[in-house]
Structures are given as C-alpha cells and as structure tokens.
Amino acid sequence: MRDALSLTDQAIAYGEGKLVGAEVSEMLGTVDRGRVLDLVAAILDEDPAAVLSLVAQIAEHAPDFVSTLDELSNILHQMTIAQTVPDALDTSWPDQARIVELAARATIDDTQLFWQMAVGGRREVHLASSARAGLEMILLRMIAFRPAAVIQSQPAVGDPPAKKPEPPVTPVVERGEREATQTLQHPDPVPESAEETIAAKNDAAAEDLFGASNADPEAAEQLLPEPEVQEAAAQSSDDDRDEGAALHPVALGALRTDTWPTEFERFQFSGILHNIALNLELTEVAGSTLRFSVSDRDATLLNERHPAQLAQALQLQLGEPVSAEIIVAEHGGCTPASHRAARAAAQLADAERAISSDDALRTLMEAFDGQIIPGSIRPNLADGEPEGHGADAEERV
C-alpha cells in the first residue's frame, strides 16, 4: 500500500496535479496493449517494416522492453485459448474481440511457436547490445521462422482454421494412400526432352572444364550433381517431388540410435517439423518403421499430424517408403539437438583455452588492468582465422 501511495504521489507530480492514464503509463514505462496487438497483426502480415515502426513508437515512451515481451506472451496465450477452447477465453480482457480476430488469422502452430520465442527471448533482451535491439530481433525472428505455406489437402475434421498449413510436404490423403506410396516407389521415367537437356548441360560443363577438344564424357557426368538431374526431370514432367531429396542421400540401413544425431544433418526439414525432429531420439528401426521418442519438455509443438509428415519427409529423402512413430517419453538424450549442443560446447572450450593462452591479450589486460567478462567468450568461426585468436578476440575483452 505504501508503494501504491508513493507511486500515486509521483504520478500526481508528473501530471502537474492531474492523473491521466497515458501520462501514468509513460511515467511507469508500461506498454499500451493496443500497440502490442498491432505488433501481433504486423507479424501475421509478415511486415517487418511495420514491426520496426511500432517498436519505434513504443520506444518513444521509454518502456520496459521485457514488459513488452511479457504483454506479447499474454496475448499469444489468450490467442491459443481462443483457438483451442474458446469458451475458456478470459472475458475480462478489454481487447477480447481483437484477440479472437488475430487468433483466426493464425494457426495453432504459429501461436505456439511465437509464444515459445517470446518467453525464451526474455533473457536475450538483457544480453543484446540494447534492449530495443533484442526485442526487434525476437519479433523479426517470428516472421523469419514462421512456417511457410504449402499446397495441402482438405483439413481433417476438428482441425482449427489455418492461414498457413503444415510446412514440410504435401500430406498424403487417406484415400489413395497406396497409390501415393506407389508413386514414390516408381517415379515416372525422365522424358526424352529432359534427358537431352541434361546431356547438353553435361557437354557444356565438360567443355568449360577440359576444353572443347578433349572433353572427358565420364568426368562430365560427374559435374552435374544428382539434384540437378532431378530438377530437370521435374521441370519437364511438372512433378513436385522435393529436389533436395538426393542432395545428401541417406540409406535407411545407416539409421540407428547412435548415428541419427549425425545423419540428421544430411536431411532437409523445414519449419516446425525441423524443430520437432531436432529433439527426437531414434529408439528403434523395425523394417521400414522408425520409432522416435521425445521428452515431455520438448513436445510443446507436437501434434497428431507430425508423425505422418515426418514419415513423408524422410521417405522422400531416403528414396523408399517408411513410416514413423513418435511417443512422448524420457530418453537417453541421443538427439540432434544434444549433438549440436555438445559440439558447440567443445568449440566454446577451445575458444576459452585460446583466449587464456593468448600472449597479446594477456599483455593488454595487464597494461590496462582489464579482465575478461565471465560468459562473454564466443567461438570465432570466421573463415581463415583460428577460433579465439586475432583482433576479434581482443575486441571481446
């Protein structure tokens, strides 16, 4: 109560004897919820210019940018409730109609992903060069990583209305599933015109490398990678097969629990499916069935459609039909995400060792009574320069 009275006195003084809502908000650095709703609309419109303009308007009132993220998280939470359990929506919110309207423009995957980014980004605001820059990067990331639209069959009964369907591949409809599988197993032959196009490209490439007089046909065949062959065939037959399937071919027999984290880097996933696959552990390969497990803390974005979509993405890149099962259960942590984290930790350890043994840096620290800020060392991955050395290392002190 004493704090409330003290703030009231400050507000009266700030408003020169008057209590006006806008002036009190300006004094406290709170954010107008209407502007945050406008931010959500700009993100759904995929309009980065509008996002930056709104942040600039918010910044004019010296706000707490972490509070802005908290307000954004609350709105996304209410949008998710409006999408899943509309009757449970908090009717005390003054902007309920606007929240319902925004929820109708987004998919449940959109709101879940945006909420996760907003909550996870709170600590990034403090780590950024400025709080405003941290907020802007989080908002622009929501636009950049929003799942892309794809052609998709009619949604199943009970699915929420969605502006953007699931990203990875066009789902195989229940009726005709066998025909779709046969199409994957027996693709149409390359039309003669496409073969001629490929041959012409090979000849031209061989001539560029070896000269017109001594072109080696066998070497020329190696110059044109498999994805380009598939692309030429796809253009002639108007086939929508994923051209990245043969970029780094993976054999089904090579997939095991211990090899899955490294083989994952050779697969191509997109959108939310990539985030889900990143946290899966391959527990068993039984024939053409791949069984995965995901821990409860990493299953936030998982829904019943994702196993089928994972299977479709895998079979396009494996070149043979497979099915996938995903269960929510604790596992041994043998996931691509854990593998990446371990690799990043090793790189950081190398960088810290390099910093500690850098004579020039030690001399600078002794001369200027400097010290390394704990947690500020980052691996230097610039091409041609060892991690943690050189001018870049000195700039991090």
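(ticket continues) Second input and output from the same batch:
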Amino acid sequence: MTDQTISKDLGGFPGEPSDFYARNMWVGVRLWVAADIFFFFAFGFAFFYLRALNSNGGFHGPNQNPSTALGVVVLVLTLVAAGVAYAGQSQLRAGNLAGFVPMAAIGVASILVAIVVQCWQFGEIGLNLHVYFGYASVYIGWTIFWILHLIATGLWLETMLAQAIRKTGRVAAMVPAAEAYTVFVGYLTAVGVVMFVLLYLIK
C-alpha cells in the first residue's frame, strides 16, 4: 500500500507507516489461528481417546446418529462462505467495492444458514438424554464452540458488509481486514471439514 493516509483513516497516528495496520492484521490473524488450533485439537484428542477407550462399550450410545445429509449441508455452506470470501477479497484488491457487496452478502447468508442447520442437528443427537456418552459429549462440545466461532465470523463479515454498503471507508483501507477475514474463515472451514470426517463418517 502506498497511500500514506490509510493508517490515519484507520485511527493511526501522524507519521505512522501506511502499512502498519496491514502488517498488524496479517500477523494478528495468524497468531489467533495458531492459538485457536490448540483449542479444537482438544476435541479431536478427546474423540480418539474416548473412542479407543470405549469404556463398557459406551462411546457411541443409542440415538446418536445425526443426519449425514444435514452435515453435508453445513459443510457445503461453510465452503461457500470461504469461497466467496476469497472472491470478495479479490474484488477489494481490484478496487471494486460494488463487487465486494454481493460476495459479502452471500457469505453472511451462508454462515447464518449453516448455524441454523447445525443447531437443528442437536435435536437428533439427544442433547439432554445422552450427553454422557463419549461420542455425544465430543459432538455437542465441538459443534457448540464451532457455532460460536461461526457467529463471531459472521459478525465480522457483517461489519465489513455494512461499511461497504454505507461507503464509510476507502477500499484500500478495507483490504487488510478482508484478507485477515479470509484467512480465518478458511481456517474455520478446515476445522469444519475435519469435524465432518470425525463426527459423521468415522463416529
């Protein structure tokens, strides 16, 4: 970025390098992803540990078969959200704010529908009756926190969408945030793929 006023537009200080905000976003989102990987790793470890232990055959209890079809729907929606994030980022890099708006709108809608469908799944897993079985415990814990991540991600994208619609900032100043968002939603989609394989295919 060569525009020397970008940092000032984003609340920077006089004399601050114009790419300071962009560098902070680049480093910050990668540090956050690296830390968050350890959070979801705990659920992966619990899945394999409890599955191997299978105390008294109680890892996978009765009525613990969430619909694979709905799981596929959630996975596809998150892949769509990641795909339009990359497309929207490309539009901003090209200076096309109008092209970013529909991509962001599709992303927000995909995330919202994915959240609704994933919540629907809780009715099939036996949230209240079978939570003490190993599989259900991992499934419920993992998906609840994944939903919370999706909510935060959707809010992040919604703020960028509102900024683009209202044209409250210049396109060049929105690029670092869009790039950071793309990295995070890509990571969260990868977590969703792993989650789908373990909780719907392997069980």
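Agent notes: The first helix runs from residue 6 to 9. Residues 1-8 have pLDDT under 50 and may be disordered. Closing as not reproducible unless the customer responds.
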